Amino acid sequence: MTKPIIILGGGGHAKVLVDILHRLNCRLLGIVDPNQSIGCVLLGLNVLGSDNVVFDYSAAEIELVNGVGSLPKDKGLRARLFNTFNAKGYRFKTLVDPTAFIAADVELSDGVQVMAGVIIQVGTKIAKNTIVNSGAIVEHDCRIGRHVHIAPGAVLSGTVDVGDAVHVGTGATIIQGISIGAGSIIGAGSVVTQDIACNRIVYPPRSQIKSINRD
Ligand code: JB3
Q1: Which fold would CATH assign to domain 5-87?
Q2: Which residues carry out catalysis (predicted)?
């Protein structure tokens, strides 16, 4: 019997997770979110209070789902929440949308979230608290670190190595064999063809927008 779940955060990422959790028939106790009033209903669930409410339940009786997403501007909130509760013995559920394809030997650590339509190929290992967002492709033998966000539609070809807390932006492409250092941000739509050191930002070519003269 699976344990009842508390979701941390009640924004856009949590909304998508709640949809997955319903489709997996999980039992949901409610949401904790410091920016909401206790007792209000959010995403169809009761707001239980702020994060400290989690400690009203023992680590043995519940599981957590990290509903705080991961964008560079968040300054590590998702990772902090994971580390805080994990250090106190709370377990984060590993979630896979039923429409994702995960090859048989893929390793997903605690709290990894795999969203709709994702493909993860053989030999890949993904560390704790990482999000592989909708429609992303992670090809064979990739190594993905902790607290990484692979945004919707990103493509990682075979044997790509991604360090901790990296953000791979929407629709970015990383060719085979590339390493991305911890803490780096790969901008949406970038095409990465060389190794990236730690804490770098890769800017993609930007669209140029001009008015159309219809005269
Ligand atoms: O790119 C995609 C597909 N999804 C994005 C996701 C990865 O990141 C999404 O579009 C958003 O940009 C972002 O989702 P997220 O993190 O859900 O952002 P937002 O919609 O702003 O919601 C953040 C939620 O976290 C809000 O409900 C906040 O009140 C809540 N929050 C803020 N601080 C917190 C805390 N919740 C808890 N439990 N604890 C906090 O300290």
Answers
A1: Rossmann fold (3.40.50)
A2: 140 (proton acceptor)
